């Protein structure tokens, strides 16, 4: 089981969109569990558009993080993938448990229970440095950082890299990290920013996800991308690049970190 987080401290940087369509692409390659760790629930909405809210409140990612329910009792199954949904109540997570280490370990134990069932786990994370982010980073082998061109890009990336470094130090872990550039156009400003990211040592920059109306509208309509379109290929390639990083032995790409 390979656990991958999609993270950026900057809001609106394409985390949920990337997580959603990457999950669709990974699910074509192996059994995939989608975990929504963001109380906004955008990924939950995408994966489970018809979810009953009363049932959701009874079992969700928060129930698992607090050790109140078994993960298998909170996972919903769809045709494409299995989903551990989020809920707005996640806003109160730190009120119930302010200790991020115990949250990290609780989620580790939960994932251990389903280790044999899934080839891939994709975690969407909130756009801020909350305990949910630390829990996701701690439990992931690879952190994908979607980056969009903005004046905040480098600052936001550095804040997240600090957060990852802190988790690595506290828990003596080493994470794989990769950038996923989205929305970069041909302008000089965008290309220079992309070059700055590519210059950051030891962090590969994966293939670009285009700015695309179909990605936006399909995600909003909670639909998968149309097969064989440019957008579909971009995420299909991202799935191959992701596998090359977490499972090079089984990769069709000759690409190592
Ligand atoms: N490649 C793309 N092309 C066009 N629109 C996109 C693309 N990626 C994301 N968007 C749009 O940008 C907006 C922000 O994307 P998204 O919700 O995925 O960001 P996020 O990082 O998850 O935000 P938050 O921090 O609020 O969770 C959404 O309206 C989404 O449809
Ligand atoms: Mg999001």
UniProtKB/TrEMBL annotation:
Signal peptide positions on this chain: none
Matches recorded under InterPro entries: AAA_dom, DNA_Partitioning_ATPase, P-loop_NTPase
Domain AAA, chain residue ranges per copy: 1-170
Superkingdom of source: Bacteria
One Pfam family matching this protein: AAA_31
Protein name as it appears in the record: Putative ParA family protein
